[in-house]
């Protein structure tokens, strides 16, 4: 396989639209500021930032390095001007668990709490915590990804609100444990408009 630098140089974006990428890379997902690819068959992923967001690469790497003594967060292997290579976790996001009807247990919630408390102990401010950033691995471990907003000053209540929904609704015996994507996306939209009764503030 070619070097990561060569592969990244062959990725083409138009603003935040992915135009093309090398066959050696497998697209995992696209977000607001970057696209993530698996490096061939390796348990490694390369996160490549869109041109207008490439300054975030260095920022996110610094945060991951601050968290590198915790198993809750991925290890960083290589860093470039607009990308970095990190450990790839195999499993499902909690968003996918809800979609597939895989039960989210109190232990999983506690593990997320432990991961976020560790980040706080390092002087960080965990923010933008949502179900797509929390992974349940094949060995039933909880992992956190996408930490670029962990240095923002504003207090983020998103995880607290998710816990409120979990404790007051999801845990009820007859409350559904499986949701179609369209309903999950509707709930997310209603939350953003502060229509749901789970907001902390």
Write structural notes for this entry.
With 201 residues, this protein is an alpha+beta fold. Helix content is 33%, strand content 22%. It has helices at 4-9, 55-66, 94-100, 106-121, 158-170, 181-192, and strands spanning 12-14, 17-20, 25-30, 34-39, 44-49, 76-79, 83-87, 91-93, 134-137, 142-144. The strands form 3 sheets. A 5-stranded antiparallel sheet has the order 3-4-5-7-6. A 3-stranded antiparallel sheet has the order 8-9-10. It has a two-stranded antiparallel sheet with strand order 1-2. The mean pLDDT is 96.
Task: Name the descriptors.
single chain, about 200 residues, alpha+beta, Phosphorylase Kinase, domain 1, Transferase(Phosphotransferase), domain 1, 5-stranded antiparallel sheet, 3-stranded antiparallel sheet, 6 helices, about 35% helix, transferase, Putative Ser/Thr protein kinase, kinase
Structural class: alpha+beta
Shape: globular
The total count of strands amounts to: 10
> What's the CATH topology name of the largest domain?
Transferase(Phosphotransferase), domain 1
- Largest sheet: number of strands, sense, barrel closure: 5 strands, antiparallel
Which segments are poorly predicted (pLDDT under 50) over 5 or more consecutive residues? none
Give the arrangement of secondary structure elements.
Layout: H1 4-9, E1 12-14, E2 17-20, E3 25-30, E4 34-39, E5 44-49, H2 55-66, E6 76-79, E7 83-87, E8 91-93, H3 94-100, H4 106-121, E9 134-137, E10 142-144, H5 158-170, H6 181-192
Antiparallel strand pairs: 1-2, 3-4, 4-5, 5-7, 6-7, 8-9, 9-10
């Amino acid at each position: 396989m070619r070097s990561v630098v060569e592969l990244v140089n062959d990725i083409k974006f138009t603003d935040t639209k992915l135009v093309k990428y090398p066959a050696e890379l497998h697209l995992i997902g696209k977000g607001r500021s970057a696209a993530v690819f698996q490096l061939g068959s390796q348990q490694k992923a390369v996160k490549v930032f869109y041109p207008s967001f490439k300054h975030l690469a260095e920022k996110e790497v610094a945060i991951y390095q601050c968290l590198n003594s915790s198993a809750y967060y991925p290890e960083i292997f290589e860093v470039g001007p607009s990308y970095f290579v990190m450990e790839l976790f195999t499993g499902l996001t909690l968003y996918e668990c809800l979609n597939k009807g895989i039960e989210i247990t109190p232990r999983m919630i506690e593990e997320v709490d432990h991961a976020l408390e560790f980040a706080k102990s390092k002087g960080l401010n965990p923010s933008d915590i949502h179900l797509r950033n929390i992974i349940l691995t094949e060995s039933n471990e909880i992992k956190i990804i996408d930490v670029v907003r962990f240095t923002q000053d504003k207090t983020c209540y998103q995880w607290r609100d998710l816990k409120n929904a979990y404790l007051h609704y999801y845990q009820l015996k007859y409350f559904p444990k499986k949701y179609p994507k369209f309903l999950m996306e509707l709930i997310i939209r209603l939350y953003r408009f502060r229509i749901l009764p789970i907001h902390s503030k």
